[in-house]
Specification:
3 domains; alpha+beta; transmembrane helix; transmembrane; LysM_dom_sf; membrane; about 40% helix; LysM; 3-stranded antiparallel beta sheet
Length: about 180
């Protein structure tokens, strides 16, 4: 009979302290979740650069994409120039530059040395190459096509846009004179 009384008194005291017990358990859950989140963030190091040394002795920089980042913002972070996002896309074989995933690891190329095509053809397909320092836009031209004809590399369209201070690189008119830096 003593054990029954003890059990009843314990249950009765628990019933009286139910709100306090719930509050303690809730606080414990919050603390455990907080510790797990802090440990996860410490280990993942999202958005921070890491460097490796390649076999050729060149430093290779890696970047893990964080929430809200784009190739433009990553390019501004490493090169102080958003237009260099084209080089990031090219180096990482990104076909849709508008879509990169959080946690995706990108190789950040060292743009200290310009990579030039080993042989530039004088004609590309049916198009003639552009050799001058300026070019007059004709109907149907795009910056990509002009960059391919002038530099042999379509990704250089961003340099043409920057050099000519184009507000909207998607909008060029026939008759415009573009400066092509050489």
């Amino acid at each position: 009979m003593v054990s029954k009384l003890d059990l009843k008194s314990i249950l009765k005291s628990l019933k009286l302290n139910e709100s306090n017990i719930s509050m303690v358990l809730g606080a414990l859950v919050v603390v455990v979740v907080g510790v797990l989140v802090i440990n996860y963030l410490r280990e993942s190091k999202v958005g921070s650069p890491s460097s490796e040394i390649s076999t050729a002795g060149q430093e290779i920089t890696k970047h893990v994409v964080a929430e809200g980042e784009s190739l433009w913002s990553i390019s501004e972070k490493y090169y102080s120039d958003g237009y260099k996002w084209v080089e990031l896309a090219k180096t990482n074989n990104i076909e849709n530059a508008g879509y990169i995933e959080v946690g995706q690891e990108l190789t950040i190329p060292d743009l200290g040395t310009e990579v030039t095509p080993s042989s530039v053809k004088t004609t590309i397909g049916n198009m003639e190459s552009i050799a001058g320092a300026t070019y007059e836009v004709v109907k149907g031209d795009s910056l990509w096509e002009i960059a391919v004809r002038a530099y042999g590399d379509g990704y250089k369209w961003s340099e043409i846009a920057r050099e000519n201070k184009l507000v909207n690189p998607n909008l060029i008119h026939s008759g415009n004179i573009l400066i092509l830096s050489r």
